[in-house]
Amino acid sequence: PGEVIVPDASTFLVGHGTYVGDKGELIASVCGVVEKVDKLITVVPLHSRYVARTGDVVVGRIVDVKPKNWTVDVNGRTYATLMLNSVNLPYGELRRRKDDDALNMRSMLEEMDIFSAEVLEVRTDGGCQLHTRSL
Q: What is the SS3 assignment for 21-77?
């Protein structure tokens, strides 16, 4: 941070991780790798939290089991949610979820279990909703 990337920022676009200094130079605001795409210059931080995108496949750890959903840590800014409806029942059974299924959620996934899932939706707060086909 604070290192001058380009002495004259007037011919470049300011991207994430950069700002224009008092003398018109482009300066890095984070420690990372400089990326240039055409006239856009950004600095990608070396260490950052995961930012979810719809369709990403993630590895998550169950943090909490709640009625009809699991709270999942995917190393993002907030926890993700895996709904009971978004999990296939054991043995590939296709039917509507019942109260018994909610009571038996710990038999499918419990705290500290690790699994992979796909990001179904990203919420405005940065959290995401997951779904998985098999456990």
A: CCCCCEEECCCEEEEEECCEEEEEECCCCECCCCCCEEEEEEEEEECCEEEEECCEC
